[in-house]
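note to self — DONT lose this again. spent like an hour looking for the file last time. sequence + predicted structure for the chain T wanted, 404 res
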Amino acid sequence: MMRAVPGVSRSAGVAAAVLLAALASACSWSGRGGGPEPSGLPAFSGGATPSASAPASAGEWRRVDLPGTVRSVAAAADVIVAGEDAGRSMIAVVTGGSARRLPAGGPPAPHGLAAADFDGESLAVVERPPADPATPAAVWQVDYSLLHDGVAASWRRDEIHDGNGRAATWLRPLLDGEEDYRAVGAVRRGGGWALHAWMAWDTWRRLDRGEQLYLSGSPEALRTGTTETTVVVAGAVSDRPEAPATTPQVWSLRDDLFEDDDAPGRWTRLPTASAPDALTDVASWDLGWWVAGHRKLRPVVYDYDSVARPAGRELPVPDTRLDPRHPVVLVAGVPVSSAMVLATQSVEGAVVWVAGGPGSPRWTRVPAPPGVLGAAVAVPGGVYLVLDGALWYRPLEVPRLRQG
């Protein structure tokens, strides 16, 4: 996912993102400055993975040697993976087909990590919940530059509460590349869930002060994203607790007035050009976002990045039928400086799809190794997939888009 570069304007952020991509593509190590790989990050020497019995390669795909289970992949200047190993947190920096764990392996989360977000400056992770669903969720945040340089860094742990003091028992951290730290979380409300958004200031402040949103079903199916100014949620969400959403919905919340205690903080429902059966991904960058899902077991992608075209319009997608047991569509690469990259769990297995150049309706199909698709991230020169909890990498060239 592309993010803004801290300390620059929005227009400059676009140019900077393009420059970062070019630099990363030219260097074997995707770290800061394109220099040699940092010392102090010991390479993994092995360890069991959920796919340890599977081959370590499949065609041009390579399984990255990581211990434990990978649950999340986030990319900015570096690629960060998070998960758990023998019940403990696991965080690593990945370059191509190799991985190097961060010092101390991450925060002392007793059940491992469920998700991570990363903007090149800060790293935020959320604890994997215990068996007790009433246990408050916790997010951990750290200055990534210290970890990257091998310096011992202190992790900050937060539990977040609603206006009545009830703790969120499900959380997802959101970083926007402008040193803003947000979170979306679910708080138990009767037999269901109330959805909230917060932003870290001197304390965690609620962004939503108007009508609340409510979840139908498990929060694990909710998808989230953020731009420089807007939090986005997609899934079985409704503003009526007594009337669950009959179709998946997309909602957004601006945070530009969050410092004003009198700001309304209202969620806004966004249109979709068609009624999806499910929404399975939100991919965002500095200024916009895309929402992926499926309808009648065919992929759909809705565009909220263009100011010249209607919000929620459908984009061209590959002609593929999804696996009815796990119908997933992920936006691995957003069409900002390079063409869009999608990943699907199709009837024939996991597949990566690369859009053609500007104006081309064609998609290049790249079959993936066997496994159930969990996450996908395209980076300059390659793509990562999480399949059955194992991380796979393949070199991949994506057409550049014309700038200006």
